[in-house]
Specification:
By secondary structure, the chain is α+β, with helices and mostly antiparallel strands. It has one domain (about 10-215): 2-Layer Sandwich (Alpha-Beta Plaits), CATH 3.30.70. It is built from eight helices and five strands, in the order βααββαβααβααα. It has helices at about 30-40, 50-55, 90-110, 130-140, 145, 160-165, 175-180, 185-215; strands at about 10-15, 70-75, 80-85, 125-130, 155. The chain has a five-stranded antiparallel sheet. A hairpin with a 3-residue loop joins strand 2 (about 70-75) and strand 3. Helix 1 (about 30-40) packs antiparallel against helix 3 (about 90-110) and helix 4 crosses helix 8. The longest helix has 30 residues, at about 185-215.
Length: about 220
């Protein structure tokens, strides 16, 4: 049984990694495919052929009334991913992640001529129980590839989507206003997130230094 139960209108940190820490996103095509799946599978309605949908001019963004979840932020790293989701429909998070994993694994296995599981068991989830936690976690997830010091070729996150808020004509998959409306402007959130990243990296380096000292 899953320890975390999901309630509508609540926020959750969702994460998982490849089985045996294996690579789950080999290149930009994999990253783009997973992002497309995040958009297309976020609906109570069957989507039909995802292959056919890839020929559309724009990234599909599902009708808000049909969404299983609101995607707040995400980061796809080479061997794991993070998301913050708000559940909108009963059992929405479980349904969304089930469809997302099933669709992407099918694509990945066909592309790489393999069979079997790709992810390390069921996805992990943690309830976000305060607004302060939500804001700091949004920075952590948005910039998670930088936390792991990964290059742009090895990761994709919603950070660029957040920085493009002013461009109303460019749609994305995230509901950003939940975070950005709490700041005076985009620059204030950008500074907040980058300062949070700096603190995270400093703590990470300090922890690594202490571990090395203990091994000496």
């Amino acid at each position: 049984m899953r320890k975390t139960s999901f309630a509508n209108g609540e926020f959750y940190h969702i994460f998982n990694r490849g089985t045996d820490k294996r690579t789950i996103f080999s290149d930009k095509s994999d990253l783009e495919r997973f992002t497309l799946c995040m958009s297309e599978f976020n609906s109570t309605k069957p989507i039909g052929s995802l292959y056919e949908n890839t020929f559309r001019d724009k990234l599909g963004v599902q009708d808000a009334k049909l969404r299983l979840v609101n995607i707040i932020v995400y980061c796809l790293n080479s061997n794991h991913f993070h998301m913050i989701l708000e559940q909108k429909k009963d059992n929405g998070i479980s349904k969304f992640l089930g469809k997302l994993a099933g669709g992407y694994v099918s694509y990945f296995n066909i592309r790489n001529k393999r069979t079997g599981s790709l992810f390390q068991g069921p996805f992990k989830a943690k309830h976000i129980d305060s607004n302060k936690y939500l804001l700091h976690l949004s920075a952590y997830v948005n910039l998670n590839n930088k936390v792991h010091r990964l290059g742009v070729q090895d990761a994709k996150s919603s950070w660029e989507e957040y920085l493009e808020k002013a461009n109303k004509s460019k749609k994305g998959i995230c509901k950003k206003d939940i975070i950005l409306d709490q700041f005076k402007n985009l620059k204030e959130y950008k500074d907040f997130a980058e300062n949070s990243l700096k603190d995270i990296l400093e703590r990470k380096d300090l922890r690594k230094e202490m571990e090395n000292l203990l091994l000496e």
